[in-house]
Amino acid sequence: MMSNRFIAFVVSSALAMVLSIQSCSSSTNPGSGSTGKTDTTVKTDTTIKKDTTIKKDTSGSSSGGFVDILASMSADGGKVASGSAHPMASNIYWLDAAGKQQSLLNDAHGKLAFLCFGGLWEPQYSDQAYDIVESLQNHYGRDSIVTLRVFTADPAVRPLTDYADTIAAHQWKGRFVVDKGRTCFDDYSPIGAYGVPFNVLIGRDGRILTSWVGAYQDGGATFRRSIDSVK
Predict the structure, then answer these.
(1) Alpha-carbon distances, residue 45 vs 24, 39, 42, 49, 52 (angstroms)
(2) What is the number of alpha carbons within 13 Å of residue 112 lying toward its C-beta?
């Protein structure tokens, strides 16, 4: 016969085992209490972070794909021949940032070219003419036409930065040359270059197709008709 002491030991051991099992079940069962619950909530960062870095375009081209140039004229091609219906255009040369000589007709190289003479000293009509050139180059694209805007001699001696400031203020893009001595403007006097704005349409062979003197109030429609007839 078992003693009372042995029976008490067995009962005590069994009770301890039951309590141990219940404790383990409580700690591993997510539904048995708050301490066993796992937080499965996905936390999303909804903060909108704005990139305020200013990115400078160093590609050397404008949004329309036109090379951005501002330089002083370095040489000219001489006077346009008179007495011909379509004389050869007088070339205009400048030095690029690397010191290499560039020119209008070389850049055109089989494309149409549109040359526009204006001046800071005559902004009322020159600015309008330069705006029209902007619309022409954006309309036809760099694969069809090459444009050059020439600032003719100013009565006041201006640094190149004055021209750069004007270009930036109007958000113009493309090629700009400063003709400080009025040389290349005078080269076109045989075909009527006596005032600004003065515009010249040059064909793919480098010959002058037509020219216009004065301001046009039709937003460039006159120029587009001439370009469309030969493009």
Answers:
(1) 37, 17, 10, 10, 20
(2) 20
Point out the residues of the chain with pLDDT beneath 50. Answer: 1-65
Alpha helices in 149-230 (DSSP H): 160-170, 183-187, 221-228
Contact by Cβ (8 Å): 26, 32: yes
Quote the pLDDT of residue 154: 76
Decide if 202 contacts 108 (C-beta within 8 A).
Answer: yes
Cα separation, 209 vs 154, in Å, equals 28
Question: What pLDDT, on a 0 to 100 scale, did the predictor assign at position 180?
Answer: 85
Give the N- to C-terminal CA distance of the chain in Å, as an integer. 122
Q: Which residues pair with 73 in a beta bridge?
A: 94
- Cβ proximity of 181 and 98 under 8 Å: no
Contact 94, 168 (CB under 8 A): no
Q: Which of 226, 206, 207 is nearest to 216 (CA)?
A: 226
